[in-house]
Design brief:
alpha+beta, Beta-Lactamase, five-stranded antiparallel beta sheet, 20 helices, disordered C terminus
Length: 749
């Protein structure tokens, strides 16, 4: 559009020049006859009226004498509105006086007659910009009689000029703001213009480049790169890149040049990239350092993993090596307590058992800690009776409290669910730790356990347990750190109460695994209240009637009391058992009276199958003491059994005789329990399935799963108690005698 406007403007000037030239010729010619003068006058009027340029003539008094149609159109008025009136009425009201002065001055010949632009506001409110060319009119005697004005509409041209000026201003500001140095080159590479660049960079100065060939400014090694970049741009129509360095007095500087081909010339954009190159170098060095650190960390991680594996193998080995003699100590002590002893001997034997039990508890805590550190401590959710687990735990510690002269209180809210889904073994472990601490740190008064329903949703119930006592209490500064590993409130050498400081740390981990949290409220000499919450899943409505509880099968006839609608507060003060320091009601009566086994249903079952070889038990155990203890326990249970020393002998025995249950140790010479189980299962195929129960000192995380995956049916960790052995035998022997009965292995075994 700017080009079209320019053409119109040029055309108008040409027409105006022709008209002026014609008028001057007419004046210079001698007078012609009237008809010729009349014809010229008509021609002049026609040109004046039909010209595409606006014309306006005024007399010496600035009165408008005539105007053509184009001028009226430019100013947006009818000619009759201003013909015969002073020309100042065509100017805006605030500029009329000044406008008149300028006209009079130019009319007198003192002012310049060069073209000028003037803004007019039309009556409709629109604005127009006109460029005015003035010509003085003279009479026959040469005196000035008036002025003719030619007006051209340059509104669009002015807008285009203003827009171009705005763009140029913005580009100039952009050049000043950007760090880039812009060079415009001709086709030969000579610099025609240079703009921008950082003022602080002495190399990027326009004076160094203007009028010179770029090859004269660039270092020699960059000239070839520039030529190659030009060829690349011509061939690919993309941007060419040239990178070069300049040696400065302060330090070497690196520059990057981007080369673009335009229609008529070249554009080169130069930027100082020294800082970027320095950053890239540092980043590369950092990446190399980071890679080296990663390699070191990977090596350290592999070392740590190897150390963890060695630690796990060491703990597994130590667990096996410790549990094997512990099985002999506890087993022989149980057998010894089952004999007629003098009171002093009875006391010694009970002391041995208590010490061995404490040592076994310590071993279990250390193994749990190792599982926690390895991230292998997990829970196995099953459906069980919550009140049964609480009753079993309370029954054990109520006897210990009574022996210490303490009162024991149990309170269970009526809305606590009877049947839940969680891990009963882990829940019982937390209760054991907290109740054991309550008894240990309380010398007089009472201890207790409360259970209330704290929150409930569609799929779970949050139950809050609180173990309270009237013991020594805990100082405020010690309450936060007692849940840390190997930490106790009293760390002095003269402390009264022993312990490793692992129980609460393990309890905290277990509670978090069960979806809850644990805390304590205590004051010194005013007792303590340890509380914890667990998220217990809900079971189907049908499961509420038949609750699978983790009770021994020999004690399955013991009924759990049905809760009443009122809160139950139970004070348990049972008489201490004379023969056993740790009785676990309502477990099998055999454990409560070891000298006179009384097994009711199990005795009847045993009597019914004694004459059948299919109900014999095969014991595969390489340790002579453990073999002797287990055979003695089987004898006390009234069962016939055969004993072998390794897996190979067990395989041979099974091939010659039918057994109702195989008690299989895992680590044995010649052939271990896993290999023997695989051979037995391979030979059975579609024949009768013989139950195999792992009887092993391997008690690390994953040992139970490994035994079951190897084809075994059950798992008992050493030391083996009479109760655990009786449960397993009752479970699998009963199943063999009555195929309709389904085995129910204890998930916590």
């Amino acid at each position: 559009m700017p080009i079209l406007d320019l053409l119109v403007w040029v055309l108008c000037l040409i027409v105006l020049a022709l008209v002026i030239h014609h008028l001057r010729r007419l004046r210079s010619q001698p007078a012609q006859p009237a008809p010729a003068f009349t014809d010229a006058r008509v021609f002049t009027d026609d040109v004046f009226e039909t010209a595409p340029i606006g014309y306006l003539e005024i007399d010496r008094d600035c009165i408008v004498r005539r105007a053509n149609q184009q001028f009226a159109k430019l100013v947006g008025r009818a000619r009759l509105e201003f013909i015969g009136k002073h020309c100042e009425e065509l100017a805006p009201p605030g500029q009329r006086e000044k406008y008149t002065e300028q006209i009079v001055k130019r009319m007198s010949g003192k002012g310049a007659e060069s073209p000028y632009q003037r803004d007019y506001q039309r009556p409709d409110g629109s604005n127009v910009v006109v460029e005015i060319h003035e010509e003085l009119l003279t009479g026959k005697s040469g005196q000035i009689t008036g002025m003719r004005m030619a007006a051209v509409d340059v509104t669009q041209r002015k807008q285009s000029d203003e827009h171009a000026f705005q763009i140029a201003t913005e580009l100039h500001a952009l050049f000043r703001a950007l760090p880039d140095f812009f060079l415009r080159l001709d086709r030969d590479g000579k610099v025609q213009d240079a703009k921008g660049g950082e003022k602080s960079d002495p190399f990027l100065e326009a004076e160094k480049f203007l009028g010179r060939h770029l090859k004269e400014v660039l270092p020699p090694e960059a000239v070839d790169q520039f030529a190659q970049a030009q060829e690349h741009v011509k061939r690919t129509k993309s941007v060419g890149m040239v990178e070069f360095s300049i040696v400065m007095p302060s330090s070497p500087q690196t520059y990057e040049m981007r080369l673009l081909e335009l229609d008529w010339n070249w554009m080169a954009i130069v930027r100082n990239i020294t800082a970027r190159k320095t950053g890239e170098t540092k980043l590369k060095e950092y990446a190399q350092e980071l890679e080296r650190k990663n390699e070191e960390m990977e090596s350290a991680l592999m070392t740590a993993r190897e150390a963890m594996q060695l630690k796990s193998r060491f703990l597994a080995t130590m667990s096996h090596e410790i549990r094997t003699p512990m099985n002999g100590v506890l087993g022989m002590t149980d057998l010894l307590l089952g004999t007629a002893l003098q009171s002093e001997q009875q006391e010694y034997a009970e002391t041995i058992k208590r010490s061995a039990t404490s040592l076994l508890s310590l071993i279990n805590d250390i193994l749990d800690l190792s599982r926690i550190e390895a991230g292998k401590l997990s829970v196995r959710p099953v459906s069980f009776s919550l009140k049964t687990v609480i009753d079993e735990t309370v029954s054990l510690f109520a006897l210990q409290a009574r022996a210490k002269g303490l009162e024991f209180r149990l309170e269970i809210a009526p809305n606590v669910p009877a049947t839940v889904v969680s891990d009963p073994e882990r829940l019982g472990q937390v209760l054991n730790n907290l109740l054991g601490n309550a008894i240990k740190f309380t010398d007089a008064g009472r201890i207790g356990l409360t259970a209330v329903l704290e929150d409930e949703s569609a799929g779970s119930s949050q139950v809050r347990f609180t173990v309270h006592d009237t013991g020594i209490g805990i100082a405020p500064e010690d309450q936060t750190r007692i849940f840390e590993r190997f930490t106790q409130a009293d760390t002095s050498n003269s402390r009264k109460y022993g312990g490793t400081g692992l129980g609460l740390a393990i309890s905290k981990e277990l509670v978090e695994l069960l979806g809850g949290e644990i805390g304590v409220e205590s004051e010194p000499d005013h007792g303590s209240r340890f509380w914890f919450t667990v998220a217990l899943g809900k079971t189907a409505q049908a499961e509420q009637a038949a609750v699978p509880a983790p009770l021994p099968k020999a004690a399955s006839s013991v009924k759990t009391p049905v809760e009443s609608a009122k809160p139950r507060i139970k004070v348990t003060i049972p008489a201490p058992a004379p023969q056993s320091p740790a009785v676990s009601p309502p477990k099998a009566p055999v454990a409560a009276q070891p000298t006179v086994p009384k097994r009711d249903g199990l005795a009847n079952l045993t009597a019914a199958v004694l004459g059948h070889h299919s109900q014999r038990v095969l014991l595969a155990e390489d340790n002579e003491i453990n073999q002797r203890i287990t055979m003695r326990l089987l004898e006390k249970l009234g069962l016939a059994a055969d004993a072998v020393k390794n897996g190979r002998e067990a395989v041979d025995a099974v091939s010659k005789k039918s057994y109702g249950l195989i008690l299989m140790d895992c680590q044995m010479p010649e052939m271990d329990g896993f290999e023997a189980t695989a051979v037995i299962r391979n030979r059975e195929r579609n024949e009768r399935h013989t139950p195999i129960c792992a009887l092993t000192a391997n008690a690390m995380a994953g040992d139970r799963e490994r035994c079951l995956a190897a084809g075994m049916d059950d798992y008992i960790a050493k030391p083996v108690s009479l109760e655990k052995l009786e449960e397993a035998i009752d479970r699998w022997i009963r199943h063999a005698a009555n195929p309709a009965a389904q085995p129910a292995p204890d998930p916590a075994a």
